[in-house]
Specification:
0% strand; 4 helices; 81% helix; 97 residues
Length: 97
């Protein structure tokens, strides 16, 4: 495994950790105060995932670009976090109805 692939895995890991431990609590706190910013962040993630999808398709059909795996993993990560952010709701409303 060369240094470029190791760097790609580290970047994806760091982005997921930042989204999980910094952005997600911020969005949950805004949802709990009924000023939900989750759909905005989810929409931004979906827009970025469309851009990454276009770059990934270009990389897949290009013989010289070896970054397809990075684009594919980034796309899966962005779609997962976009859905998670978009569907977040207030915890007290979720528990009490």
């Amino acid at each position: 495994m060369d240094i470029k692939k190791i760097f790609i895995w580290i970047v994806i890991l760091i982005v997921n950790l930042i989204l999980n431990f910094y952005i997600l609590p911020f969005i949950q706190k805004s949802a709990n105060s009924h000023m939900n910013e989750g759909p905005i962040w989810g929409f931004i993630m979906f827009i970025i995932s469309i851009i990454v999808f276009v770059l990934g398709v270009n990389a897949f059909f290009s013989k010289y670009d070896k970054m397809f795996l990075f684009y594919f993993l980034s796309l899966i990560t962005l779609i997962f976090w976009g859905y998670k952010f978009y569907t977040i709701i207030c915890l007290s409303c979720l528990n009490n109805g």
